[in-house]
C-alpha cells in the first residue's frame, strides 16, 4: 500500500520557489532532533522520528508545516518511549503560557 | 537573518501577534516545553544544543562548490569523488553521515536529485534544503515530469539530453557534479567555486561563466 507521504510520481501544482529563511523555532527543533539522534545522546533514532511522522493521518500530515510535523512527531515519540510524560509536558506548557519559568509563583 | 513578509507560506499580512490557537505558536510552545524538560532532566544540555546549531549553520552550498571546483581542477580527485564520495570529501575535511554519491552531468546526461519520501539532502555539504525541495509538488512531480519541473527553474534541456532523477534515502545522499563551462578551463579553484550555486548541485540549474 502506498502511504500518504510517498508522493513520488503523483501530479502536482507548479512549484512555489520562494526562498524561505528558517525561523528560530525551525532551527531549534532541527537541532534538538539532531542532537537526540546523535551517537552521544541516542535517545531516539532517525528511523523512529521518520516513523512517527509517516504514521500521521493524511489530514494531519497535510495540515502541518514541515517543522510542525517534526515537533509533533518528536513529542509523540518521547512520550511513547517514556522519555517524557504527557502530564509533565502539559504542566510545562501551562507554566510557560502563564509566564511562570522555574516554578516561581507569580500573581 | 531576515524575516521578510514573503518568507513563509502561512500568509498573514496584518501583523497580528501570535494567537493561542495559532498553529505556529502552538508548535513553538511545544518545542520550548520539550527542550526545557530535556535540559532539566539532563538528556541534552543547552551548550550541546548551541553547538549543534552552530554545526548546522556552518554547512552551506559553499562546501559543495569547493568540492566541485576541486573536481574540475584535479582529475584524480574527480575520479575518486565519483567512485567514493565519502572518501573524496573526507580528504577535504568534510564528514558526511551515510553514503554520499556524486552523479556527473555530461553533454548527454543531466542529473537532478530529490527525496520523494521527505527531505533527505546532503546537508553536510549544502546546508539546509530550500523549502521547495521539501515541498509535496517538487517531490511528486520531478520523478515523472523532470523536464517540466526544470523548465520552471528556467532550465530548458534539449530533447536528446537524458535526464536522470536520483531519489535520496536516509542511507544515500546525492549531489550533482555540474559540467564545467568550457571557457573556464584553467581558472583558479576559488574563482571556479564562485560559479557553482546550490541549485547547480541539486541539478535544477547549470553552472555558467
Describe this protein's structure.
The complex is a heterodimer of chains A (107) and B (209). Chain A has five helices and no strands. Chain A is mostly helical. Chain A has a single domain (24-101), classed as Cyclin A, domain 1 (Orthogonal Bundle). The longest helix of chain A has 15 residues, at 66-80. The relative contact order of chain A is 0.10. Chain B has 209 residues and is an alpha/beta fold. Chain B folds into two domains: 23-57, no CATH class; 59-202, Nitrile Hydratase, Chain A (Alpha-Beta Complex), CATH 3.90.330.10. Chain B is globular. Residues 1-20 of chain B have low confidence and may be disordered. Chains A and B meet through α1, α2, α4 and α5 of A and α1, α2, α7 and α8 of B.
Summarize the structure.
Chain A is mainly α and 107 residues long.
Low-confidence residue ranges of chain A: 103-107
For this structure, the CATH topology of chain A is Cyclin A, domain 1
Number of domains of chain A: 1
Which structural class best describes the helix and strand composition of chain B?
A: alpha/beta
Helix count of chain A equals 5
Considering DSSP H and I runs of 4 or more, what fraction of the residues of chain B is helical? 40-55%
The amount of beta strand of chain A, in percent, is: under 5%
Give the C-alpha Rg of chain B: 20 Å
Order of adjacent strands in the largest pleated sheet of chain B = 1-4
- CA-CA gap between termini of chain B: 29 Å
Amino acid at each position: 500500500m502506498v502511504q500518504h507521504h510517498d508522493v513520488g510520481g503523483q501530479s502536482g501544482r507548479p512549484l512555489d520557489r520562494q526562498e524561505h529563511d528558517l525561523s528560530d523555532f525551525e532551527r531549534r527543533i532541527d537541532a534538538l532532533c539532531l542532537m537526540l539522534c546523535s551517537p552521544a545522546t541516542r535517545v531516539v533514532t532517525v528511523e523512529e522520528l521518520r516513523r512517527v511522522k509517516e504514521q500521521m493521518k493524511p489530514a494531519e500530515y497535510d495540515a502541518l508545516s514541515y517543522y510542525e510535523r517534526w515537533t509533533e512527531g518528536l513529542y509523540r515519540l518521547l512520550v511513547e518511549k517514556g522519555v517524557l510524560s504527557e502530564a509533565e509536558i502539559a504542566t510545562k506548557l501551562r507554566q510557560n503560557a502563564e509566564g511562570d519559568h522555574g516554578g516561581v509563583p507569580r500573581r | 537573518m531576515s524575516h521578510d513578509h514573503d518568507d513563509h507560506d502561512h500568509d498573514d499580512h496584518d501583523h497580528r501577534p501570535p494567537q493561542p490557537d495559532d498553529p505556529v505558536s502552538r508548535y513553538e510552545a511545544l518545542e520550548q516545553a520539550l527542550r526545557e524538560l530535556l535540559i532539566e532532566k539532563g538528556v541534552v544540555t543547552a551548550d550541546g544544543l548551541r553547538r549543534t546549531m552552530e554545526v548546522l549553520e556552518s554547512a552551506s552550498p559553499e562546501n559543495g562548490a569547493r568540492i566541485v571546483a576541486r573536481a574540475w581542477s584535479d582529475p584524480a580527485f574527480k575520479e575518486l569523488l565519483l567512485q567514493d564520495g565519502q572518501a573524496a570529501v573526507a580528504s577535504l575535511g568534510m564528514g558526511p553521515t551515510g553514503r554520499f554519491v556524486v552523479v556527473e552531468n555530461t553533454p548527454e546526461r543531466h542529473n537532478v536529485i530529490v527525496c520523494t519520501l521527505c527531505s533527505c539532502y546532503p546537508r553536510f555539504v549544502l546546508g539546509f534544503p530550500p523549502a521547495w525541495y521539501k515541498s509535496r509538488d517538487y517531490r511528486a512531480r520531478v520523478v515523472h515530469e523532470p523536464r517540466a519541473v526544470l523548465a520552471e527553474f528556467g532550465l530548458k534541456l534539449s530533447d536528446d539530453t537524458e535526464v536522470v532523477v536520483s531519489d535520496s534515502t536516509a542511507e544515500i545522499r546525492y549531489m550533482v557534479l555540474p559540467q564545467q563551462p568550457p571557457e573556464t578551463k584553467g581558472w583558479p579553484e576559488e574563482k571556479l567555486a564562485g560559479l557553482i550555486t546550490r541549485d547547480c548541485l541539486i541539478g535544477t540549474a547549470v553552472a555558467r561563466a
